[in-house]
Amino acid sequence: MPRFITVSDPLDPRIEGYRDIRERDLVGRQGLFVAEGEVVLRLLTRSHRFETLSVLIAGRRRERLAEILERLSDETPVYLADQPVLDQIAGFSMHRGVLALARRSAPPTVSDLLGGLGERALVLALSGIANHDNMGGLFRNAAAFGVDAVVLNADCCDPLYRKAIRVSVGGVLVTPFARLESGKDLVGALRTAGLVPLALSPSGAQPLSRLERPARVAVLLGAEGPGLSAEVMDQCQTVAIPMAAGFDSLNVSTTAGIVLHHLCAA
Q1: How far apart are the first and last CA of the chain?
Q2: Considering the entire predicted model, what is its pTM?
């Protein structure tokens, strides 16, 4: 069982890692990250990739979370605070009443991550995804459709940003991911691992409905607006989702959900 510690002072130094979490997210946490919400905490405590350092919850949630908290080690502190104190610590109204501080694991290299995939593999490859809501939505789809790995280029935002984790409903904690170093060739890395790269674009040459799934495939998606570069598109089989007249694009996470569903059903 974890150690339960009541916190009544929002300035208590023991909960420093939770203070003003919106502002702290912007400047980084020196190898740590904050997870928010009951579902996310459940996945975090089941993960072998991340270490839960402490938990901060509204006291009224202790009984509801008992089954999850029992999975924590005896050394892991669980801080209990009344809702007004919790709100002051976080810097805004924390209606979910559940936070956890965890340590990032050493990320695998892209080659190691992709090299460990089986004969049939589904990979999501992301280029320039800078919006944390979109990143969270993409990882939610990845987890929902059993994606084996996510590869990020150097221009993508941090999947372990608190809001991205929350929007992913913990999917970021479930699906393995790796980031390419700046200047490295995304398509080249996928091809080296024996994956067929499919680039999604409104101008794609083949409708998604006619696509036959390769056994080992990587779905490439770019940021909303600019999309994938012409250089990337030229190296890939290009795929489009036909739409009604007057519309030529979808939200990137919506696109991912449609494409991944098609590939899983193929």
Answers
A1: 45
A2: 0.93
